[in-house]
Design goal:
alpha+beta; five-stranded antiparallel β-sheet; 13 helices; 49% helix; 21% strand
Length: 413
Amino acid sequence: MGKETGEGCHIYPNASNSRVTLHIKAVSNRVRDDDKTREQLIDELAELRQREIKLAIQVVETGQMEAELRILHHFLNIANQGKAMLPLLDEFVQEIQGITNCFAVGIRILDEEGNIPYMAYAGFSRKFYESESPLSIKSDQGMCINVIKGTTDPDLPFYTANGSFYVNGTTDLLATVSEEEKGCTRNVCNQFGYESVALIPIHLGERILGVIHLADSRENTVPLEIVEMCERLGIGLASAIERVWVTETLRESEEKHRILVENSGEAILVAQDGMLKFVNPRAMELTGYSDHELTSKGFLGFVHPDDREMVAERHLSRIRGEKLPDVYTFRIIARDGNIRWVQLNATLVTWEGRSATLNFLTDVTDQKQAEEKQRETSSLLQNILDSSVSVSIISTDLDGNILYWNVGAEKIF
C-alpha cells in the first residue's frame, strides 16, 4: 500500500511514474480550485459593482424625488399664501430652470378665448416672445397647439404617453421625420437655434391648463426622464394654479360685493342673536351711529319702543323659518333723537355657519309724512263738506255712479 502525503496523494515506492502523475493531478486540482475562487471573486465583484450602480441610481432618483417634492411643496405654499398668478409662475420658471439646467423656460396658460400667451418666461429673447406669445389654439397649428389640445400620438417617438412633445435635435427631426408624422409644424424654435425642445402639458384632471416650454441650443438636454419629471411637476403646478384662480375669483367677487354694499342706497344689516353683525355705510348714515355703536349692543335698542315687540317677533319667526311678510315698516330712533320710518325687506341667510337675517332698510320717512299730511287734509276736507248742510254736494264717476254725498245732499233726496 502506498502512504498518503500531505498533498492528499498516494505515493507508490515502486512506481515512480505513478508518483509523478499523481502529483501533477494534485497540482492541477489545486489550480482548478484557485481558478474557481478567482471566478467567484470576479462574479462577486461584478455583483458588487451592479449593487453600487443601483445604489447610485437610487441616490440620484431619491435626490430628484426630494427636489420634486420640495418644489411642489413650495408651489402649494405660494398658493396658500394668496399670491397672485404671475409671482407663482415666475417662481416656477426659476425652479424649472434650476432643476432641468435648460437655458430657456416658459409657461403658456390657455385663456377663455383660446389664446395661449406666455404668462412667465426666462431665457427667451424678446423677439422670440413677441413672435410666439400671441398663438391661439383656434387659428394656429404646431406641436404646442397639439399638446394643449391633447391631440398627440403616443405611438410617435417624439410624444410621451402623457401627451408631451420632446426632441433633442430639432434639425435632425425636421430632416429625417416625414411630414405625415410631424404634421403641421411652425419650426420657430429651430429657427431661433434651439435644438432641444420639450412641451409639457399642465394637467388638471382631464383639463389641460397650459404648457411648460423647455428649450436649449445644446442637443440632448431634455431626455425622457427630465420630461417625465416635468410632467409630474406640471400636475402640482396645475393644483397651485387652480387654487390661485379660486382665491382670485373669490377676492374679485368679494370686492364687487363690497363695492355694491358700500355704495348701496339702502341700509344693509345682518342680524343674528339679537345683535347687528354687519352694517354698511348707508346704515350708519341713516341712524347717525358709528359701526361700533351699531354692532356693540342689541339691535332692538335702535327700534322705537312701540315697534320693538313686533320687530322682535318677526325676526325670531324668520330665524325659525316661519312664513311671514318679507316687507314691512317700523320706526327707528336716530342718534339725534329724531324718529324715522324705515321699510324693511328681509331674508334668511347663513352667517358664519349659523342662521341670521339679511336686512335692507329704506328710509320712507318723507313718504310716511306725506301720507299723514294727505290723511289730515282728507279729514279736514271731509269735516268741511259734512258741515256744509245748506249746500248739496254729490260726487260721481264717469258712469254716473255716486261716490260721495254730504249731509246737504241727504236733505234733498
